[in-house]
Write a structure and sequence with these properties.
By secondary structure, the chain is an alpha+beta fold. The protein contains 11 helices and 4 strands, in the order βαβαββααααααααα. The structure holds glutathione. Glutathione binds next to α1. One of its GO terms (molecular function) is transferase activity.
Length: 242
């Protein structure tokens, strides 16, 4: 048995960026496999039999080509599960704090992100008005470290909470800076109102935190704005009403 890690992802995937960030943070030795998830190769069902989605990791087992996953490796999927797995595998990275209270805070931040922010952001990316994102942003802001304790979601160390959120904010910034989806949804409804609503002074702490994440080397190293631009533009175009 080896400790090999093979990561199945894609440059444009918000979820695979999460796991890519963590792999960079822990400085893991791993093989990366870029998967066309819109046209799935047959071997993906062997690399990730549970969901056949990306991101996925195979861990251990013999060292094999990525397109011939071994039945002996562990198959790990779901971005948050993978983040926790990597934090467990590399405990000195502090991606999950040792303190039980801080661990709970990290997990609650992720839970709030995935239930209160991402669903409304996804709806906005598909043409819904951006109004509900304000409540999601407020819910996250309320959880941020107290004054003087940051600069990350929970304390002074970058954790899986930050890795989970950064890819979403990178996409919000890209969409609003490049007017992605304007032809489909209209400038005022889609872009101007989103910038206005999330730009209010009451959300200054949230914005400062979110923008700070984008400066993190692991986030920059795993961010492909041109690929995302092309993908998001193509997706939005599908919503243009003929
Ligand atoms: N809840 C999953 C979502 C993963 C997901 O939706 N992955 C997309 C790519 S971004 C995918 O594999 N889509 C192909 C499919 O669902 O068949 C996670 O957090 O990992």
């Amino acid at each position: 048995m080896s400790n090999q890690i093979t990561h199945y992802g894609n440059k444009i995937s918000v979820f695979a960026q999460r796991t890519n960030i963590a792999l960079h943070e822990v400085n893991a030795q791993y093989t990366h496999c870029e998967v066309d998830f819109e046209n799935k190769p047959e071997w993906l069902f062997k690399a990730n039999p549970a969901t056949a989605q990306i991101p996925a990791i195979t861990y251990g087992g013999p060292v094999v080509p990525f397109d011939q996953p071994s039945p002996e490796s562990a198959k790990i999927t779901e971005s948050i599960v993978i983040l926790e797995f990597l934090a467990d595998l590399f405990p000195s990275s502090d991606l999950l704090p040792a303190d039980p209270v801080e661990r709970a805070q990290v997990r609650f931040f992720i839970s709030t992100l995935d239930t209160k922010f991402w669903p409304v952001m996804l709806a906005w990316m598909r043409g819904a008005p951006p109004n509900d994102m304000v409540d999601g942003a407020k819910a996250l802001q309320a959880l941020l470290s107290q004054e003087g304790k940051g600069p990350y979601a929970v304390g002074d160390k970058f954790t899986i909470a930050d890795a989970a959120f950064a890819p979403m904010w990178a996409r919000f910034r890209l969409i609003t800076e490049r007017d992605i989806g304007v032809e489909a949804f209209g400038k005022e409804q889609h872009i101007s109102s989103a910038i206005r609503l999330l730009g209010v002074p009451e959300l200054a702490k949230f914005r400062a935190y979110a923008n700070r994440l984008l400066e993190r080397p692991s986030v920059k190293a795993t961010w492909y704005p041109e690929d995302c631009n092309e993908y998001l533009t193509r997706k939005a175009a599908r919503f243009i009403k003929k």
